[in-house]
Amino acid sequence: MTELRLFYATNRNHLGKDRWRPDGYGKKFSDDGVENLRFGRLTLEADESKMARYLDKDCETMGQGDGEGLIKYLSKCAESADIVAYREKINRSVAEDQQENIKLGSQAAFADLQAIMFKNTDVLIYIHGFNVSWVDAVGSALSLQEMLNHCPEGDPKQHVQVVLFSWPSDGMALPFVSYKSDRSEAAGSGNAVGRGILKVRDFLASLRRADEQLCKQDLHLLCHSMGNYLLQNALERCDAFTPGNALPRLFEHIFLCSPDVDDTALEEGQPLGRLHELARSVSVYHNRGDAALVVSDYTKGNPDRLGSNGPARPTLVHNKVHQIDCTSIVKGLVEHSYYLVGNVNADIRMSIDGMQHDDLRRHRNRVGVMGNQWEMRST
């Protein structure tokens, strides 16, 4: 058995009597409000041999590693996770910067993560998608963490620590009611994510003001499915509380995986049109055979999805946005969560390691003449 560790932030309601040592988190917003963020960490025990079956699996055209299959096992392990929320001392009726002797859970979490980053470790913030319970969110985040850290193409000296942001996706698998409910809750959770991003900005600014030694590691962000809609709403919050004309560049890479947002969302003047300001590079992974997004299109009355065909008008998105078509290798094997499998996951890891988009070691070919459009290949 091995111990797995995960950091998290959530605006879900806690389960159990003790909010600082909860039994888990539920499908409603925190009792302290939609924007209330609880920061914490958890550990769980997992069987290395069982994980290895998924991490080493040959997934045909997708390559090595079945992180989607690993989710079910790790979600089961998450049912008995040891969860510790960072304690806070705060008066929510008074602005944080006006309180003396305030104690913020975010500051304690960031300090612990900073210590980990000094050990050659990048941090990847992960926002899950539609219809995901708390234990499934934990299982997905840990699966992503394990896949990235066991990637055959990864730099063995570089590690990745995933930080889960879990919003109250209801996890009930009711196709129509759940989708509408989750979309409303994703929009409401956008402000909470925006608030978290601003907390990261302020923490980094405080380190620079104090002239503290920096770890020289990177922050990244990965959003899956409806998690991209949540990010879309978070940008509004960031913009409202950012002085000047540009958003702070906090992330090295932002990965939009199977994004359940309009296919025009990245164009100037659209909800994600300024996303490139937050990062050095943005990667959009899409699949024309994504059945989940087809359902979003036709049964929910949404326009074409970014995660199906990529940007509707590729020439109108910023040149920092790279579009990666995964259709040719997915082939119905993993329609919606292919970012957790084989060569697509490896491609994400190569970006985290600082590999250039046109590096020949990547399993992708350039398409078109723009220079930022790619197609994944199996070998």
UniProtKB/TrEMBL annotation:
Pfam families: DUF900 (PF05990). Keywords: Hydrolase. GO terms for molecular function: hydrolase activity. InterPro entries: AB_hydrolase_fold (IPR029058), DUF900_hydrolase (IPR010297). PANTHER family: ABC TRANSMEMBRANE TYPE-1 DOMAIN-CONTAINING PROTEIN, TRANSMEMBRANE PROTEIN. This is Alpha/beta hydrolase. It comes from Nitrospira tepida. The lineage of its organism: Bacteria, Pseudomonadati, Nitrospirota, Nitrospiria, Nitrospirales.
